[in-house]
Amino acid sequence: MDVQNFKGNNWSAKKAGSVYLVSLKNHSGITETLTDFIQDQNILAGEVTGIGAVSEAILRFFNPATQKYVDKTFKEQMEVTNISGNVSEIEGKLTLHLHITLGREDYTALAGHLLEAKIQGAAEFIFYPINTRVIKIKDQETGINLYDFEK
Ligand code: FE
Residue range 98-106: average pLDDT? Predict the structure, then answer.
C-alpha cells in the first residue's frame, strides 16, 4: 500500500492508500483547519469522522420556517465524542459539512451543526475520499445546500 505524509496549515496527515489520518494542532479551529486540508489535498467528496476535545464551539441550528441558521457559542471544556461530515463542492469551492456531538463536564451532551470549534487537547480525523466531483446546490424549498447529482 502506498503511504505518504503531508503537512499544512496547523494539520499533518498520513495517507495510506486512499484513506487519510489527520491530526490538527492544539488551539486551532477545526472547520478552518480541515477546510485547509481538503483544499490542499484536493479532496473532492467523501466522508470524515473524528474525535478530540475543545474549549469553545459555535453550533448552528437551522430553522426551516425562516430558512435561517441560529448560532450559539459554548465556552467550556468539552469532549468531541463525534464529528461526522461530508465533502462536496459548493459554488466552486471544496466545502465541509460537519456535525458534532460534545460531551460536557457533567457527562451530558450538546449536539448540532458545527460552525467552528477551538481545539483544547487534540483532534484526530479519518477521511475517506471519493474521487469524483460532487456538487451541492441551494435547494429553493428547504433553503439547504443539497447534493445535485445531475451537475
Ligand atoms: Fe448541517
Answer: 98
Q: How far is the CA of 97 from the centre of ligand 1 (A)?
A: 6
pLDDT at 6 over 90: yes
Of the pLDDT bands very low, low, confident and very high (cuts 50, 70, 90), residue 151 is confident
CA of 68 to the centre of ligand 1 (A): 12
Ligand 1 centroid to residue 31 C-alpha, Å: 13
Q: What is the mean pLDDT of residues 101-119?
A: 98
Give 99 Cα–ligand 1 centroid separation in angstroms: 6
C-alpha 94 – ligand 1 centre gap (Å) = 16
Residue 74, amino acid: F
- The DSSP code sequence of 13-80 is EEEETTEEEEEE-TT-BHHHHHHHHHHHTT--EEEEEEEEEEEEEEEEEEETTTTEEEEEEEEEEEEE
Tell me what pLDDT residue 133 has.
96
